[in-house]
Amino acid sequence: MLKVSSLFILLCGLLASSSSQEVLSRVSSQITDALTQGLLGMNFPPALQTIDFQGPLKNIFSLALGQQLTNGDANFEVQMKDLRLFEVFLENSPDFKGVELRMPLAFSIQIKFPALNPYIFHVRTDMKVQLYLEKDVNNRYQLTFGHCRIVPETVWIQSRNFITPMKTFIVGNIERVLRNLIIQNFGAKMCPFINSWLYNLNPQVTNQLISKCW
User: Fold this and answer.
1) Strands 156-160 and 119-135
2) Looking at the predicted structure, is the pLDDT value of residue 4 above 70?
């Protein structure tokens, strides 16, 4: 588990723009472990399952499978599985006074029909959360979380086990729809959990940042 003092030292170093890479290299694995435990302990997968994949994908599969779809088959199921968090890192932001926490994620999307083998898409993407210090009405520093989002250019999707009659252009259309859904909806579902986990550290983080940095 990440020692809170390591996170304070890391943020202080980055905010002061001194030896940030050296500090990051010392504690990056600890941050990854802490975020992994925190995120996986918040039971967020059920929230992700509420993303509506069926609607946008239904027309594409109807075109792809045509008469092979019965009324029962048309009610396909989409599941997000195997969510994994890779090593996180912090970046100095050129746009605001703070740092950005960057979190690489991977997961799979399985599309299941009653009478057919599941279609599997492997996904990788990065999320970013802005972190910075601000003063409250009592002139005390507090850790604040800014914009949280999926980084669109990092979304990577690879399909697996598609056979006839699935054509290349159909697979491309499915990947395009999934990419748009991930950019628009996945981040919106994930960000409240990430911000909640970080917010729970806020009082301790604030006190230690003040004592170590100012």
Assistant:
1) antiparallel
2) no
CATH code of the domain containing 24: 3.15.10.10
User: How many CA atoms are closer than 13 Å to the CA of 80, on its beta-carbon side?
Assistant: 25
Beta strands, E only, the chain: 77-85, 89-92, 99-112, 119-135, 141-150, 156-160
Q: In the chain, pLDDT over 90 holds for what percent of residues? A: 11
Cα angle 190, 194, 195; round to 5: 115
Distance CA 106, CA 95 (A): 27
The Cβ of residue 180 has, within 10 Å, a number of other Cβ atoms equal to 13
Phi, psi angle pair for 115, to nearest 5°: -110, 10
Higher pLDDT, 9 or 32: 32
Query: Is residue 3 predicted with pLDDT exceeding 80?
Result: no
pLDDT at 86 over 50: yes
> Cα separation of 198 and 205, whole Å?
10
Tokens, residue 44: 């967020």
What is the number of structural domains in the chain?
1
Domain that holds residue 122: 4-213
pLDDT at 155: 96
